[in-house]
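Request: Have a read of the protein record below and say how the chain folds.
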Amino acid sequence: MPDTATDFQNQLMAQIAKLQAENDQLKKENEDLKKKQEGGGGSTNGQAGQKEPVQLTASDTKGTVSGLASGTGKATLLDKNGNPIVGEKIVFKVGDTLVGTGVTDANGTATVNSGSYLGDPVFWFKAVTSGYKAVYNGNGKYSPAEAHAAVTPAFS
């Protein structure tokens, strides 16, 4: 038991300071948890703000050159367990040039044909030297992803 009112007041102030420090620590831990939940990416475990990761692969292709050039890009979108994700839009690009879009089918595969760039030699130079890119922009459930594949010329 404290001897005087001053001793009691000092003990009370020390106890308040200790409780404030504990409260500050709990606030910090709470903010850290909120940041992790809102960060996106990673696997979903029922927490708000997180999106499931995906696997996006693009297949190497041959660009056929016989008078006119053409090629087909193909990408496959799978969930974290390797199951196909159906009905999602995949964007295909060569450099910054949009080649086209495709929607994933029952196997999670989307394709696009470069038909609109048949006679563009600069486009084909970029395609052969740097390949193409498949881009998935994600949605409310899944995280975005990108994949890259090579384009090699095939003369026929």
Notes: The longest helix spans residues 5-38. The CA atoms of residues 41 and 51 lie 5 Å apart.
